[in-house]
Amino acid sequence: MMITPSTETHCTVTELLPNAQYELWVTATNTTGISPASEKALYMTVPSPPVIKQRECSSCPEAALIRWESGNTNPVDSYTVELREVGADGTTIAVPTCQCLIQLQTGRHYLISVRAVNIGGPSDRSEVITVSTIGTFFYLLEDTAHPCLSISEDGFTIFYGDEELPIRLICKHVLSVHRCVAILGDLIPVRGRHYWEVEVDDGTEFRIGVANENTERNSYLGANSTSWCMRHILTPSRHKYEFLHNGWSPDLRITVNPVRIGVALDYDRGTLSFFNVDLEQHLHTFHCHFQNYVHPCFGLDNPGALTVHNGIEAPEYTFI
Asked: Can you name the residues that pair with 159 across neighbouring β-strands?
């Protein structure tokens, strides 16, 4: 630290570490010498600002889940989340941990930041992020990706079999030990309605759907009682589509291959529905009665690509 000698009754102490406790005392000096030290005082510096982990934040029409890192070596007492709707006054929420699920209004845009708090006071504000509640928005969880998968730099196109792509992901959790390679999206921890879309092509075999957070990772998506999916298979004679749960699918025929598939999740009604977006055509609905929150899931059975579109408003026909 830097202490500046003073002839006044105060001085400035600089270069203190954030979120640290110091003992301070004063001595007086004259021509005779230095006095005994004063009584010691304890002083706690304010924390460093937290760092919001934007790629681990998600939102939906009713709420947002915000996650951050403390930014401090020593523990802090609490955090305050500051949110303000664009063009309106703000509010503050006190929380004890490094995440907060905030109830919000549908169809709005919010500015959100976080401060760390200790006995010395609040830190400076973190970087401000913008959160939209137009639709459900989630990131793909890179640490759940099979090692054969790559994703685009924006995090929303999933590739299998293209060695030229710049990002290779390390596998920690795998949704299949055999042919299908998969990745999870953020857990959707808010009851209500959620919607996203997936671009596909005729030559790609895929599985898209949802799985409980406690689903066994060493099983196919749709092969157990805790996951549900739409599957596309290429056969010598046709394109085959299955809607799998617990290893079983109804016998359905889809005559027009969908290019963009809408996925509509309704926790309250216990339904998971799939649509051909271009035709506004309903393909299938699972009646699930979800006991737990779920992850969106995306898998590829052969080389190809899937592109995920989220943060978009659900079409009117999806939740009729």
From this structure: 150, 305
Q: Which residue range is the domain that position 263 belongs to?
A: 142-319
164 phi and psi angles, rounded to 5 deg:
-85, -10
Same-domain pairing of 170 and 294: yes
Average pLDDT over residues 301-313: 92
Sequence length of the chain is: 320
Residue 316 pLDDT: 93
222: phi then psi, degrees, rounded to nearest 5: 95, -5
Same domain, 211 and 305: yes
**Same domain? 166 vs 123:** no
Digit-coded pLDDT (tens) for 161-182: 743 332 222 222 334 334 568 8
Out of 132, 167, 194, a domain closes at 132
**49 HSE (CA, 13 A, CB side):** 12
Tens of pLDDT, residue by residue over 78-133, are 999 999 998 888 899 999 999 999 999 999 999 999 999 999 999 999 999 999 99
Do both 179 and 293 map to the same domain? yes
pLDDT band per the 50, 70, 90 thresholds, residue 6: low
Q: How far apart are CA 79 and CA 93, in angstroms?
A: 8
pTM for the whole structure: 0.83
* Phi, psi for residue 55 in degrees, rounded to 5: -75, -5
C-alpha neighbours within 13 Å on the C-beta side of residue 75: 4
Beta bridge partners of 101: 65
Domain identity same for 209 and 116: no
Residues 180 and 121 grouped into a single domain: no
Q: Which residue, 132, 156, 180, sits at the end of a domain?
A: 132
Number of domains in the chain: 2
CA separation for the pair 62, 314 (Å, rounded): 14
Cα separation of 200 and 85, whole Å? 36
CA dist 96 and 91 (Å) reads 17
Distances (CA, A) of 296 to 139, 173, 183, 304: 10, 14, 9, 19
One-letter amino acid for residue 178 of the chain? H
